[in-house]
Amino acid sequence: MAEGTPLLKVTIDNITVEVPAGTTILNAARKIGGDVAPPAMCYYSKLEGSGGKCRTCLVEVSKGSEKDPRPMPKLVASCRTTVMDGMEVKNITSSKVIDARQGVVEFLLINHPLDCPICDQAGECDLQDLSYEHGKEASRYEFEKRTFHKINLGDKIQLHMTRCILCYRCVFAAEQLTQQREHGVLDRGEHAEIATYIEKNLQHDFIGNVIDVCPVGALTDKTFRFKNRVWFTKPVDAHRNCTKCCGEVRLWMRGDEVFRVTARRDEWGEVKEASNGKTGWICNECRFDKKHVSDWVIEKPTHINRHSVISQGHYEKLQKPQEFLPDLMHREPRLIMDIHNVSEVNRTNIDLSEIKGPAHSTDFNK
Ligand code: SF4
Ligand code: FES
After folding, report:
1. The CATH number of 111-221 is which of 3.30.70.20, 3.40.50.720, 1.20.1600.10, 1.10.3210.10?
2. Adjacent-strand bridge partners of 263
3. Which of 50, 169, 193 best tests ligand 1's pocket when mutated (most atoms within 8 Å of CB)?
4. What is the pTM of this model?
5. d(Cα 53, Cα 142) in Å, to the nearest integer?
6. Which of 93, 106, 102 lies closest to 60 in space, CA to CA?
7. Which protein residue has the closest C-alpha to ligand 1 atom 4?
8. Which helix (H) or strand (E) holds 25?
9. How far from chain centre, in Å, is Cα 258?
10. Where are the CATH 3.30.70.20 domain residues in the chain?
11. pLDDT tens, position by position, 152-203
């Protein structure tokens, strides 16, 4: 910002903040922080051109600006709308926004499977969080969800297109980090899918970062897939001397075993700046090949938001079905079976991909 450029005043959920011209409503709200910041499934501040795809960040502009105080006629995508001086915005204080967000979540879940119990992203999935906050208990969609075969994008990344919400983040990440993009969104509408067209490998030292930017479990790390639930692992910040990247990572450990290596994330779930001030994208060698504690200098336990399921450590502490089911069903359930008693998902050393499917009625009849 040029020196002397006046700051613009914007009020979001009754809190006023001053930001430079050109700032989006979303970034102004992030400056305030907490719940005032709208959720963002496709915007990613470190990826140029991202945003404008998912509509989860909708807000109500109740006053356009000091000069033109008329409200904006429709809810706007806060990641794509810049602030004006004197603008007044409602996010969590607007019933229209809450209502619209519920609709957006319902649409996102039309095709997204509810396979959280076996999904590696469970516990750190933006869509899972969003649907807990804004989702309805039932779907009005009567047609079959679209399904795809799983595709290996090289030997380390798996694409599970069935879970993709077409946010385009991985496409921007590949384009901007690797300069040799080999994948994108093919086809349109119902048929749109992330693909390499001829199932090419994604080969580049930094391509693993597409896993970190994916807000759902559509792109997963094959070296971690089905190895552990994220809330059973302990995240620690660590570093090593790496010639390709900043070498500053987060290790997801259980005892002395390193289960997974990811980039460090900031409070918005985006890759955190490295200590040299540059973006902290990490290379494939650090991510996939350095799985021994001796490869790393451990710094400290990662600070995880206390509301996150990860900081709960184990899910027995979460609300039990007996506690919330009567409210959801509007009656006492006649029978509650614990899925873990009749399926193999919680057995140690089991490869979850080998399990034929989740438990269903016939299992309960045994
Ligand atoms: S694979 Fe993930 S990051 Fe890529 S478009 Fe789909 S949801 Fe977004
Ligand atoms: S985050 Fe704004 S439209 Fe997706």
Report:
1. 3.30.70.20
2. 249
3. 169
4. 0.78
5. 24
6. 93
7. 170
8. helix 25-32
9. 22
10. 111-221
11. 888 899 999 999 999 999 989 988 888 777 778 877 787 788 777 556 667 7
